[in-house]
C-alpha cells in the first residue's frame, strides 16, 4: 500500500530513509570492528569498503541535522541544545554505568575491579571524552557513540555564535577557520565535552543550512559537482592507502587533515542528496521500514550507545575467532534484536507500567505532550 504522505524537499521527514539506512550502517560498522575479515593479501575488506568512507557518512548525518538549523539568539540556542541533549545523555550515562557494573562483575567476579572499571566509564561519559584519555592522572574511557550527540550540540552553538557575530559574507571564512582550529586542537590536546569535534563539524552543519536556504535538494547536481565528488572519493581512498589508516572523527584523526574534513563533507552532501531523491521514488515495504527506523534514529542511537559501551561484546566475538563471518552475522542480528526490544519497551513503557486509572480525555493529552514534546521536537529537528 502506497503512502499518502507527500515527499517534499521542504520537510525534515525527507531524511528518514537516509537516517534509517545510516543508523543500520553505523550499528553494522561497530559490529564489524570486532571481527577480522581479511583477504589472502592481508587487506581488510571491511576496512576498505566501509571504514574509508565512514566519516563521510557521519558528515552526512550532520548535514541532515544542519538542514534544521536556524539563527536565533545565542542564549536561546544554548538553552535549546542543553534541553534537548542533557536528558537522553544523562539517561544513557546512568544506564551504561549500571549495566556495565553488572556485566563486569558477572563476567569477572571481582567487585573492586568492576567498580574501578565502571568508574572509568562513568568518568569518561561525564567528561564527554570522544576516546580514551588521561585526566588528573587517571585513565578514563570514551563516552562511546555519544560523542556524536555532544559534537552536534557544540557545533550548533558555535554556528549560531558565528551567525550572530559576523556579517553573512564572512560566515564561510569563519566556518573554515573554526574547522581548522578544531583540527589543530586534536593534534595537541584532547578537549573535554567533544569541543574539538564540535568545531570540525561546523562546516557540515553550515552545508545543511545552505542546502535549505538555497534549495539545493530541489536541484539536480551539476556535472562539475559530480566530478568534485569523484575527486574527493579518490583522495579519501588514496589517503587511506598511503597512510595505512582511515579517518576517525572521534579520535580527531584525518589522513588528509583539513582537506580530508572538507572531502568528507562533499561526499556526505552527495549521499544525502542522492537519498533525498531516492526517498521520493521508493514506496516499497522495505523503504517504509527504513523510514520508520529513521524516525526513531536518535532513540536507537542512545540504546546502541548503552549496549555498545556496557556489554562486553569482545567476549562474544572471541568465540568466533575461527569463523569471523558467522560471528559477525550472528552478532549483528543479536544486536539489532536487542535494540528493537529495548526501543519497543521504551515506546510502550507508559502502557506497560500504567498502574493508575486512565486520566480524563481532557487532561491526559496535555500531560503527555508536556513530557514528550521537547525531546520529540529535538529529535525531529536534529535527526
UniProtKB/TrEMBL annotation:
One of its GO terms (cellular component) is plasma membrane. Keywords: Cell membrane, Membrane, Transmembrane, Transmembrane helix. It is found in: Cell membrane. It is a multi-pass membrane protein. InterPro entries: Acyl_transf_3_dom (IPR002656). The chain crosses the membrane at residues 12-31, 43-69, 89-111, 135-158, 170-189, 195-211, 223-242, 254-276, 297-316, 328-348. PANTHER family: O-ACETYLTRANSFERASE WECH. This is Acyltransferase 3 domain-containing protein. It comes from Faecalibacterium gallinarum.
Amino acid at each position: 500500500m502506497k503512502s499518502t504522505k507527500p515527499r517534499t524537499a521542504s520537510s525534515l521527514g525527507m531524511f528518514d530513509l537516509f537516517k534509517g539506512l545510516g543508523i543500520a550502517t553505523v550499528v553494522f560498522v561497530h559490529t564489524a570492528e570486532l571481527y577480522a575479515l581479511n583477504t589472502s593479501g592481508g587487506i581488510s575488506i571491511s576496512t576498505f569498503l566501509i571504514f574509508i568512507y565512514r566519516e563521510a557518512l557521519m558528515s552526512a548525518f550532520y548535514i541532515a541535522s544542519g538542514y534544521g538549523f536556524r539563527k536565533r539568539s545565542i542564549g536561546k540556542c544554548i538553552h535549546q541544545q542543553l534541553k534537548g541533549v542533557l536528558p537522553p545523555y544523562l539517561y544513557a550515562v546512568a544506564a551504561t554505568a549500571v549495566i556495565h557494573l553488572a556485566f563486569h562483575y558477572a563476567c569477572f567476579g571481582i567487585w573492586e575491579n568492576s567498580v574501578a572499571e565502571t568508574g572509568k566509564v562513568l568518568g569518561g561519559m561525564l567528561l564527554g571524552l570522544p576516546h580514551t584519555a588521561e585526566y588528573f592522572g587517571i585513565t578514563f574511557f570514551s563516552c562511546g557513540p555519544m560523542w556524536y550527540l555532544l559534537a552536534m550540540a557544540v557545533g550548533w552553538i558555535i554556528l549560531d555564535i558565528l551567525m550572530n557575530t559576523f556579517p553573512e559574507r564572512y560566515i564561510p571564512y569563519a566556518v573554515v577557520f573554526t574547522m581548522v582550529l578544531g583540527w589543530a586542537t586534536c593534534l595537541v590536546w584532547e578537549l573535554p565535552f567533544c569541543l574539538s569535534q564540535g568545531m570540525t563539524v561546523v562546516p557540515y552543519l553550515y552545508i545543511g543550512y545552505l542546502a535549505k536556504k538555497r534549495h539545493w535538494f530541489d536541484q539536480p547536481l551539476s556535472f562539475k559537482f559530480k566530478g568534485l565528488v569523484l575527486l574527493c572519493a579518490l583522495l579519501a581512498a588514496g589517503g587511506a592507502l598511503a597512510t595505512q589508516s582511515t579517518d576517525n572523527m572521534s579520535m580527531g584523526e584525518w589522513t588528509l587533515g583539513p582537506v580530508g574534513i572538507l572531502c568528507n563533507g562533499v561526499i556526505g552532501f552527495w549521499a544525502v542528496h542522492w537519498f533525498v531523491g531516492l526517498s521520493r521514488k521508493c514506496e516499497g515495504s522495505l523503504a517504509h521500514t527504513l523510514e520508520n527506523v529513521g524516525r526513531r534514529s536518535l532513540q536507537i542511537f542512545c540504546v546502541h550507545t548503552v549496549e555498545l559501551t556496557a556489554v562486553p561484546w569482545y567476549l562474544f566475538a572471541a568465540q568466533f575467532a575461527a569463523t569471523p563471518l558467522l560471528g559477525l552475522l550472528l552478532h549483528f542480528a543479536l544486536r539489532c534484536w536487542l535494540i528493537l526490544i529495548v526501543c519497543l519497551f521504551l515506546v510502550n513503557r507508559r502502557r506497560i507500567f500504567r498502574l493508575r486509572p486512565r486520566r480524563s480525555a481532557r487532561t491526559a493529552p496535555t500531560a503527555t505532550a508536556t513530557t514528550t514534546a521537547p525531546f520529540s521536537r529535538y529529535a525531529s529537528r536534529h535527526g
